[in-house]
Structures are given as structure tokens and as C-alpha cells.
Amino acid sequence: MDSKINRRDFIKATTATTASVAALGAGITLTTYVNANENPVTNEKRWGMLVDTNRLTESDIDGMVTACQKENGWGNETHSTGDQKASWIKKIKVKDTATQRISNLALMCQHCEEPPCVDVCPTNASMKREDGIVLVDKHRCIGCRYCMMACPYDARSFVHEELTNQKEHMPRGKGTVEACTLCVHRVDKGEQPACVEAVDSDAVIFGDLLDVTSNIHQTLKRVQSTQIRADLNLNTGVRYSGI
Asked: For the chain, which residues make up each domain, given as ranges?
């Protein structure tokens, strides 16, 4: 038996162990993102979202943010500097320099097919499910924040504070990174993400991008859409029309 181990394997093994111990110390409830219906997650589906900026209003986005906070339990933290609070979904404005038109966007994790956050994670805490949802395994996350630096959408947050009153379905922990999960706990039960449910129109459509009969697939065939930073060739699950 060869007792030798290379440096890379040693680092991965020790960081994984450290992550597990850190998670227990932080009081994170041990849980995994298992399909609530006990059906295996496969690549026969790819969940995605289409945001119509022509129809989405500022109040719509405010409602999306509020719904996400209420559903997942973030947003009430206080931090000494005030500029590092959790932000799973953001309201941003984009200005077309040619027409001067301003569009309101809801920006969250884009759930890339080729996620940079997964590529740089040393412990495999950042991961992508077979159905395209990008997640963070809090038990493996060691808080290195490489994923935050790699994300071109500034979609991830770092938890600086001790947390209380967490949601059972969405565990969080001090010293770990977090981001939009597309409300995976709802999706696995056949429900819509909370932010989508909060918009009372087709300004935001969620569904299976691979299902030719789905509303999102049919709509994408009819309307022109784009990806944020399409030049990166990440094939995002979140698409935008009207910009």
C-alpha cells in the first residue's frame, strides 16, 4: 500500500475535515439539499428564470426582495460597517448609453451551467445540482470567499454575524458564504420560488428550460432575451428580456 499523498490531495482532505468541524461549531443544522419528493435530481430538467424588464416595476422588485428575505430568513443582520449585509437578490438599474433608457433588474445568483464559483472552491462546498441549481454546502464551506471573488455577478454574501431564528429549511451559519438557491426547498415540492410567486404577472417566469411545453421555454422561443455577461459563456439559468 502506497502511503504517499500529494500536497493537493492533502489540502483537500484537511480542508474538508475542517469545514465539517467548523459547521458543527457554528451551530448549523446538519442537512442536505435532498429532493423533498425523494425523487432523484437528474439532468433531464434545468431550472431557469426569465425576467421581463419591460414589465417588471421597481415595486415588483421590492416585493421579490421582501419575499426572498421572509422565505429564507436573511436581511435582519447588522454589521459594524453596514456595507457587508446579506443580499441574495438585489434591485439594480441599468442605463442604455445609446438610448438613455433605464431598466430595473432583479439580480441574483444566475445559476450558471459553468459556474466559476464551483471551479475555484477548494472544498467542493460550491456545487451545481444535476438540474442546474447552484448551491453552497454550509458544512464544507470554510469561508475562504474564493467563490465571491470569482462570481462576476457579485451574487454571494458572507455571514459575519452570529445568527438566530433560522429557517429550518434554509440553514445559515457564521463564517460561511450564501446566495440565492432558487428556493430549492420549494422547487423540489413542485412550487415556485418565493420571489417569482411575489410577482403577480408574467414579468418573471420560472420553469424547466428543457421542457418544450413549459411557459418559459415557449416564451424564450418568442421573445429576444439575453444573459448578463453573455461574453463569459457561462450559459446562465437566469435570462432577461427588454435589455
From this structure: 7-241
